[in-house]
Write a structure and sequence with these properties.
about 45% helix, about 20% strand, 6-stranded mixed β-sheet, Cytochrome Bc1 Complex, Chain A, domain 1, 15 helices, 5-stranded mixed β-sheet, globular, alpha+beta, single chain
């Protein structure tokens, strides 16, 4: 076994620029592999919505010398799994296996990333599945409210303005050549892979070199760029009538912040208290529990390479749409003015710190954390520093973040449901 101590992450950069993050986790029953290529829907043409997601999902449908059926049979026959998919700011891939089967998983994943074949029959099967899913989504009030809010928050040319899965028209028009062309934007220098389990880190490095070192692209990598959206003005509202529905879904939204923003942690704590912890934070407690006006109510913040939205969402009966909107705005306003109580702040500190610890109890959770640390350049000691970072967020910082980003005078509001 390697001399590298358990709990120590080996960071190795292959000659082609691909970053490997390897950690020995003794006693883990399986080895987890997680990776990402920082190429996503943010880089696709506006008229080809869904291209990145389609491409990512198609990687497993045939790669190297293996067909889709052979990939499934060979991996599942050994109790292993592989997967891949596209996203907005990155495309991901993953695998899980017993330690002795890790070479097989890395071989298959390398084929998927470097040598996908995009068989025409499989592309059409996948397209059919996507179109079926989109038709179902078109009938979902929450989905319709969400895409309406995105369209108001961001201009049409912005990567966040359209659903990453595309539309019925755009997905129907994507060709196999489009998939192959978009795949050529995958680049080893934009790729990170994390391998965690009861492994020999140096042996894993050798296997990664064997499988991925030949991935050579002469063109310079094209990094994802997410521009800031122009500021909102006033209140924008859109109502989407959906006859026959019995529930309305509403989304209130403002522009959020990037993960790299100095006040990211203050905003994260603020969101946890406002709409996450317990049954949905203050919003869930007041709008759902105390006033009984919503089936669910929470808030969420999307902070990554780009500044995503900060949203509050609720599912309500049609007669409670306006009262629920009023209650949400009132709660946001109170939070902006007064901030959290000492008890709420302590609870948020404890929850966020505890969540990190729980997430590191599995090899898969560790691999995901390592990828996030690499993506955002947080440093090898980030996990050790994290509790102190969270504990340092005080009442004034939370109020400052709430007042900077949240507003009851400038926002978007989307409501989808019965007429």
């Amino acid at each position: 076994m390697s001399s590298i101590e358990p709990g120590t992450t080996l960071r190795h950069v292959l000659p082609n620029g691909m970053v490997a993050l390897i950690r020995r986790n003794p006693g883990a029953p399986t080895v987890s592999v997680r990776g990402e290529i920082r190429v996503g829907a943010a880089m696709e043409p506006v008229e080809q919505g869904g291209l990145a997601v389609f491409t990512g999902a198609a990687l497993i449908r045939g790669a190297g010398e293996r067909s889709f059926q052979q990939i499934v049979a060979e991996t599942e026959g050994r109790g292993c799994s592989v997967s891949a998919g596209g996203g907005v700011q990155a495309s991901g891939f993953a695998g899980k296996a017993l330690s002795e089967d890790l070479p097989l998983i890395l071989e298959v994943l390398a084929d998927m990333l470097i040598r996908p074949t995009f068989p025409a029959v499989e592309v059409e099967r996948l397209r059919s599945q996507f179109l079926s899913g989109l038709r179902e989504s078109e009938q979902d009030t929450g989905y319709r409210a969400s895409i309406a809010a995105q369209a108001m928050l961001y201009p049409a040319s912005h990567p966040f303005s359209q659903p990453s899965g595309g539309t019925l028209d755009s997905v129907a028009a994507i060709t196999r050549d489009d998939l192959a062309r978009f795949h050529r934007r995958y680049h080893p220098a934009l790729t990170s892979i994390a391998v965690v389990g009861d492994i020999d880190p140096l042996a894993v490095v050798a296997e990664l070199e064997r499988r991925f070192a030949g991935w050579q692209i002469t063109d310079a990598p094209e990094a994802v760029y997410i521009p800031d959206a122009p500021p909102l003005t006033g209140i924008q509202r859109r109502d989407i009538p959906m006859p026959g529905k019995v529930q309305a879904d509403l989304i209130w939204g403002v522009h959020g912040l990037r993960r790299a923003a100095p006040d990211y942690y203050a905003a994260m704590v603020a969101n946890m208290i406002l709409g996450q912890i317990g049954m949905g934070g203050r919003l869930g407690e007041q709008v759902r529990e105390e006033q009984g006006m919503a089936y669910y109510c929470y808030s969420d913040i999307e902070a990554d390479l780009g500044a995503g939205p900060w949203m509050a969402a609720a599912g309500v009966s049609p007669e409670n749409v306006e009262p629920a909107i009023e209650a949400i705005l009132e709660e946001i306003d109170l939070f902006r003015q007064d901030g959290p109580t000492d008890e709420e702040l302590d609870d948020a500190h404890a929850y966020l710190t505890g969540s990190l610890v729980i997430g590191l109890e599995t090899s898969d959770g560790i691999a995901g954390s390592l990828l996030g640390i690499e993506r955002h350049g947080l440093g090898s000691d980030y996990i050790a520093r994290y509790p102190a970072i969270i504990a340092a967020i005080d009442h004034e910082q939370v109020i400052a973040a709430a007042q900077k980003y949240l507003s009851t005078e400038v926002y978007v509001l989307a409501v989808a449901g019965p007429v």
